[in-house]
Structures are given as structure tokens and as C-alpha cells.
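Exercise 7. Predict the joint structure of the components listed below.
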Amino acid sequence: MVYIFHSTLLWMTDSIHYQKVDRDSAILQVYPMLGQYQVPCTESDTVQLPEVEIFTPALDKYTIGQHVQVISEKELEPFQGLALAEYLQQRTGLFLRQYGPGMLASLTMRGTSAGHNAVFWNGLPINSPSLGQADFSILPVGGFDQVAVHFGSGGALYGTDAIGGAIHLNSKPKFGGGHQVQVASLIGSFGRWNQQVQYGYSNEKFSSRSRFYRNFSRNDFPFRNLSKMGTPVEFQENAQVEQWGVMQDLAWNLNSKNQISTAVWWNKTDRQIQPVIGSNTNDTQQDQNLRWVLDYFHFGKNKIWNTKTGLVKDELIFNIKAINKTTQYFIATDLDWDIHPKWKSKSGIRHTYITGDLDTYQVSESRLELYQSNNFHPNEKLSFSVNLRQLIYERNWAPFTPSLGGEWNVWKNKTQSFLLKTSFARSFKVPTLNDRFWVPGGNPDLESEKSWSGEIGLKHVIVKNNFNFEQQITHFRMSVDNWIIWLPNGSFWSPQNIRKVNNSGLEYFLDVTQQFGEWKLGLSGNYAWNQAINQTNISENDRSKGKQLPYTPEHKLQSMFLVEKGVISSFLNTQRVGERFVATDNASKLNPYQLWDVGVNYQWTLGGKVSGNFGAQINNLFNTDYQVLRLRAMPGRNFQFNLNITI
Amino acid sequence: MIRFRIFTAFWVLAFIAVSCTEDVPEIPLGEFEKGVLIINEGAFGANDGEVYHYDPVSGDIKNDIFESKNGRPFAGLIQDLLEADGKMYLVANTGKVEIVDPKDFASLGAVDTDLNISRSIAIANQKLYISDYGPYDENFNSPNSYVAVVNGLNGGAVSKKIPVPSQPEGLIVAGNFLYVACSAAEKLQVISLATDAVISSEDVEGTPAKLKVIDGRLYLFARDAGNIYFHEINRNNFNIQNTIKIPLANATSNFAIGEGGDAYVITSTGWPDYNDAVAKVSMNSASVVNPSLYTGSGLYGIGFHPVSKEIYIGDNNGWQGNGTVIVINGSGQTVKTIDAGRGPSGFVFK
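Solution:
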């Protein structure tokens, strides 16, 4: 079945309160409706079955004062099998440092470094404990159903790494969907061929979904070889990417008060590493990632008790020889309790056991963290949240992280509302295993990186007949201290807590839709202004102080215009990335670039039982020659076609 | 590492000769025909090697002179730079040689195919000889090292690869022979320029790095954990006829020859102190004159200015950004600092 679920559920039962979360993101807080399904109200003309999503805790319940942007399954659909990095780069205001198409892509949020954002899959943190970051090129769209982006510090809510923000990848299987087969294909330039097959069955008590995918790209795109006389156009070599994955979701409603759900995701990526222009390296990298999560939910009166366990197993093999393996085992439990209509509380504990068998060292480590979140709604106009967290790793106390958020409904009438938001937060990042134990150079005495941040934002919403308008502006300031960098120490490199960075900036989000009869027009936009100013020189001759961090564009703008009429829709999308400095002294920089993409999508049904959509897209419409990072070739104009069939 | 083998005296004399001969019509000097060329090796994985020009008289610095002139980045790591026959050869260890006009750095040609990890270059008989590690094997060893031969001084295709022991570094032409310092194999290799074939191979003490003619004598510089070696080569039988062994610990392969048998060598203690220094050694007395004439961290390239007698030291500033050139006098005092490019690794004084 096509998922027809979005933001229009509102229902009540005896014991459990079902509500639409009327906040930023409309992440649904949907509780199981055992035996009494209702058909959600939707304008879609697809066949509707009484589906109910498997319970996942509302991400934004305790994020008062901050912004969470949700990317739905429908928005992800045209990126079937492509890296999440591609989606975030093309369709959001976030910037990713991409070493070529399909190559390592690390995210920078609010001007912080690649390891300064936490990434979760179904509530499990999946940043590599050895590298301290996630590679967004090996998180293919298809490995999850929904993405939520939490902007700003979230250390108290999420633990280590969430200094600039957090990314949540969630599976959204359902109950009551019957049998369902889904086939998705994407074919594109440079040998791109992505294929996904899914079978799902669910009734009111049980839900199962299995998915298999293979994504491939020869990646032999033409590029101008700047390292050669006459800069000839050559075809990229040694950049092929092949990826396979299997996913399995299962869920049981044991009875009206107990639910168990589990998910497994195995992903393997086999890549040639695209060399920097001017080099002729033939490096290869194989990544294998296995993630498993098991959730038990008990729904009591005004209480939800969740116990979560799981593991995240990462293997990275570079050039066959260098083998790096880490495994994280998690067990956590928390109680989310609506103490009073005005008071909500969540208390929890999480234990993580990490083992690392890296190329140059072996290590194991335990981490224990306690967290407490509270919401207080004194009246309709005001809400506050206070979150606290303390993490201990191997007898080291990470910085205690409190956060405080508030929202004030300044003004509201039938069509318009203004919401003022503010938040203050402390965050931290535990030094990675490599930082502490790599041989040679690892520094076991490193302290956690730590930050203070504050933000203030205004959200403005207009809803009038067929016109919807939503905009939000946020100003933030942040200071990150104890920032770890690796410096050459004689014949090798070693990390030190040496840098301090002050970040400040603006985020702007816009979402407008207007309906004229059959026609629907949409305009969305994201703009990010990030200043990340280095406050330290590492040596007498260093010229980094007062300068913007490298590869951190001050400006990024993304906008998309959408036209829809009945079953046909088309879009025009653009992203503009400002200049990026190549190194800390800002002596050289890369030019800004702007890319345009255009596409069309057609939804069809066949005999009432088979439905699907067909999309065609031109990326980099004007064949712009650009580099995200210096001398990393990127493709010019390219085409992609995607076809989804649902039975 | 970079060798600078410019015949400074020749240039100084030529300059004086031109300046003093009023009858000869004055030919304007090219932009980069005097002053100091700063070779910035570039950072691994970034291919941002470049050459800067520094005018010691005005203090002016011109950045990225290759890219400025040619409208494209050098896009490689500069390993060696040689001026010969009115051309300047820039060797990238990313497998290419760029050939430019020394006057203005305008591109004249290149060798950009069939090389792997090129290290150094020598010119003889209208041919280019390029030392190359060859491709790494799976353990990052270099079992297929070679010296590539290119017919023609403007580059082009590699016509022949002469196999040599592992990881050839410095090259020098003396007489009708090409001498090759093979670092991993710890051998000195001699190639006949008449036949382009190896005619002699000899084990040496220490890891050999560079070859230099000092006061008319041909030396091979080598080092190990506790010593540096100047092996003097007999040009008749290719044997090492004499070795100056100087007890200098933690020497790198970066050194500059001063005056009166003095040499300046960069040392690095590594972990845990990781202190770098410039040591002054005497070849005449085979002793260390001053183990720490200058101390710092991130010291990378070194050069001796033959006219001002100042020592130019490249500081890589931890590779976080561009480097700095520190100019010191003979007593080790800092005279000035110059903003350089990424990883300043060598100098050409003109």
C-alpha cells in the first residue's frame, strides 16, 4: 500500500491520548489503535486501508524552542537508492563536504565539524565510535522511511556528538496494511542503476516488512582534468560504487498495552575511491554496517515505558589490508510520563558497550548515561522544557549537559500565528576511539569537546482557504571549546584539545502552498548563514585566529518551486553554496556555485490494484562546472528516471 | 624532498655582468628571474602544491605563480624543482612533471602519463630522467621502482623505464653517468647515459636521499637514527671513496649546504617531545657545531641564501593552513617571516 499517512490524525480512546503534535514538524505521536482502526482523513485518491504506524516516541516532544524538520517518504522517493548526502545537499540548507559523487560525505551543521552532529537510526546512535562521525554517502535512501533533522545543540536529549544538531533516520512500518509488494527502480547517467524490492504483510496484531536493494553507479562522468596541460575533458576513473542492503522490520501488538517491534538493516558498500584531480591512486574501500534494534513499549495510563536494545556493527576495510571493526551494544530504558496536563516527564538510562578491533589497536569501553526531560505548559501560550544528561565513560565524566527551551505563542487569530522560541543548551563530544587510542599518536588524555549555545527564533504561520504559508527564522550563537584537531608531531600526527570556535548565524525556512482548483503551487526555501570563527592559533606563525573554518560556507540557499495538477507534478530546484575556504588561514578559497535541477513526476494506477509513479529528472541543468571540495571532480548535467510500482 | 641545484654564483655573475656592460642592450629580466622561489609541497590528498615568489628587496610576495600564469592549479604535490637549459621542471609526486618558462612560469610542456610516484628529475643529452617509486604494492612497498626516460626537453611520452632498486629519490648527472639514490633499498645506482642501462649498484650506510656536488666533489647524503652521512663518490669506479659521518640524531632528509663546509640539517625528535630544530654541522670536522641553531615545530624545508647568508626555514604550521618561511641569520636569530603556501619545502635563490 502506498503510505497515506501524514499529519491529519486526531483521535481519543479511553486510556491513551492520541494527538497530532501541533508543532514544528508534525511528527506524529500516534499510539496503537488496537482493534478499532479508523480511516485517516486524506485527500489522496489511492485505495485506503486502515493502517496505523508502529509506535515511535515523538522526537520533538522535549525539543521545545528548537526546530525539527521532517523529510517524508514522499520527498525521499525520487532519491531512491541514492545517498542521503545527495538529498541533504540538494534539498536542504545543510552543507555536506563531498569528496565526489558517492564518495565520503560528512555533514556540517551550524558551522561545526563533521563529528559534531549525532546520527540515529530508529533511536540508536550510529556515528562510528572510532571515527566519531557518519559517512552520509553510505546511508542510502531506502534504508529508512523518514528523516528528521534537529537543528541546534541536542546534547541533553541525544548524548555525545549532537553539538551542531542531529539527524534521525526512522523506519515507519505499519499495522493493518495487508499484503503489499513494492518495486522501485532508478536509472541514471554514468551507469546508475538502483533497484529495490519490498514485501510487506501486516494485520492488526502483526507487521512484517522485508526489503532488498542493490544500488550501482559506474560513476565515469566526464570532468575537466585541471592537472593537465590544456585541461582536457576526461572520464572519471576509479570511482565505481556498488551497494547492497537488506532490511527487515517486525512488530507485534501483544495486547492493548504492550508492543514489541524490531528492525534489522544490513548495508554493504563496495567502492573505488575517486582520486583527487591530479592523482592516480587506485584506492578501494568496503563498508559493512549491521544495525539491529528491539523495542518494547508498555502503554500505561499516562505513561509509556520503553526498553530498547540493539547493536551497531561497522566494518571498514581500506585497500583490503586495513581492517577497522567496531561494535556498539546498547541497552536503554525510559519512562515517559504525563504527570499532569501541564507537566510531562521522561527519565531514562542507557548503557553502551563498545568494542573496537581497529587496524592499529584494540579497545573496549563502557558508557553509562542518565537523562531526564521535563515539559511544563503553564497555559496555552507558554511551554518550556528542561533536559538534563550526564554521561560517564570509563571513569571519565563527560560534561554535564543541561538544556532549557521555551516557546511563547505571541499572537494568534483564525488565520495567523506567531510563535517565539528560544533555547539554551550545553553539548559535548566524547573523544573518538581513534583520537584516544590510534597507534601511533592517539592521546588518551583528551577531554571531551564541549559547547554552549543559545538561539532565538520566530515562526509565522498563515492558513487561509487554500493558502498555507509558514516561515521561520532562527538566530543562534555557539561557542565550542576543547575542539580536537590532529597535528603533526614529528613523524606522526597526534590529536589535542586545542581549538576554540565561536559560531553564529541565521537559519530561515519557508514553505508556501496555494491551491487553485486542480492546480497546486508550492514554494519552499532554506537559507543558512553560518559563521564559524576560529579563536586560536596553534603556533606562533599560525594565521588561523579570527578566520572562518575551512570548507564551511557562510551562505547556503536552497529553494524549490513545485507545480502539481492532478497526477502530474513538476519541480524546479536550486541550491547555491557560497565560497569555501580551503584551509584555516583562509588564504585560498573555492568559488560559489549554483546548481539547478528540474523534474517531472506522474502518478498512475492500473486496474485499481496496481499503482505507482514515474519520475524523470535533470540534475545540474546548466552543466555547471563546480567543486564542493577543492580538486574533487563533480558531475555535470545528468539524468535520472525512477519508477515505483506498488501492488 | 626538494633539491635546489641552481648555480647561484652563475646567476649572480651573469646579473653583474649584464648590469655592468652598458654597451649591451638591456634585456628586461623575467618576473621570476630574480628573488626567491618558495616551493610549497602541498598537503597529502589535497594536491595543493604551488610556487610562491618572494622579492627580498621589496618584501613583495606573489602567491600561486603557476596557477596565476596558467589559469589552472598545479594540482599535485611538488617534490622537486630543477632549472636547466632555460626551462624549469616541477616534479609532482602525483605522477607528473610540469615544464615552465623560468621567466614567467608559462607552461611549456608536461610529462603526465605513465608516471606513478615521481620524485626527482635530471637532464642529460636532450632527455629527461625521472626517478619514480612505481606503484605501491599492497603493503605500501615499491618493488617496481624505475627511472623514466623522456626524449625531448619539453616533455611528452615516457620512452623507457629503467628498473632500479626500491624508492629512488635524488638524481644527479655527472660526466656521462646518472647517479640514483635508492632510499628503501639503501643503494646507490649508476646508469650509463650512453646505454640508459644500470652499470653499478652499491650498498650504502644509512638511508640515501640526495646527491650534491659540493666544492667539486660528488656526495650522497644519507641518514639513520643516530647519524648523517656524506658519502663521497669516486666518479671513476663509482665506489664510495670516503664517508663523512656526523653524529646527529633524528635528522630528516632536509638540509642545505652553507659556506666553508657547513651544512644545516632539520632534525625532529618525534614522540613524545616532537621538537624540531635546525642543526649546524661541519663537513670539514665531521661534527655537530650546534644541534639547535633554531628550534620550533613543523620545520619542513630549508635553504641557504648564498648572497645574504641567511637561512630560510619552511614551517608547515601543523598543516592546518598555509605555512610560514622563517628567515634566520647565521646566529640563529629570526630576521623576518614570510607568509608561504602549504608546506613550504624548499627554496630557489636567484
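Discussion. The first strand of chain A starts at residue 52 and ends at 53.
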